[in-house]
Design a protein that fits this description.
Helix content: 25-40%
Radius of gyration: 17 Å
Low-confidence stretches: 229-233, 237-250
Number of helices: 8
Largest sheet: 6 strands, mixed
Number of strands: 8
Oligomer: single chain
Strand content: 5-15%
Shape: globular
Distance between the termini: 34 Å
Structural class: alpha/beta
Amino acid sequence: MSTSLESRVSDLRQQFATQDALDILRTAVEEAPGKITFSTSFGIEDQIITHLIFAHDLPIEVFTLDTGRNFQETYSTWSKTILKYQKPIKAYAPQTDSVQALVEAKGPNSFYESIENRKECCGIRKVEPLNRALQGQQIWITGIRAEQSQNRQTMEPVEWDEPHQLVKIHPLFNWTWEQCWAFAKDNGVPTNPLHQQGFVSIGCAPCTRAIKPGEDFRAGRWWWENADAKECGLHATHNGPDPVVESVPA
């Protein structure tokens, strides 16, 4: 990773302040041609960005982390997206030997037993595959929005990701939840039906539930843990690891 792109972060923040999401993506392509990737977990924000990339034939790789424990609705959304746009979505799965060793040693649901066990599972199923997906890339596009959490409000639309040594760009950072749904409806973007069932965060099926009216959005993720432990290591903020991994509405 060249230091020149790291030094561009401040300038890009100023430039993006006057650009819409599509122009942000186009600028990103110019900054790092052939070395830009987008991670999707098939929440609505990610689906919007996928639409912008595919509908406008932008040369940005789209990938997902197939943890092996996703919801069937998520897999269905994945399939519908491929059928609509006729574009590939690269899948990164966990290392078979690591998953096999974990399950043999601790069983299939060890993540319920302790925070340490849950983070071990996240590390195997999410963090290690993500590290592989980002190897050799210079820009990582995400669906993060400021509304999604208190921690994310401390982030910037463009950031230097020190652990992965790349620039991280959030094209929908200042979008509202209502804007996302209006765009999806107007543009026929396939959306995950779990959103309509009260799921505000769409992660692995054993670790995600719908929330009740008035509940904090974090209530749906790792609900058996204390709120301050709810992170898995994919994203980091100025305040430490982000407690929300997948796309989450306000």
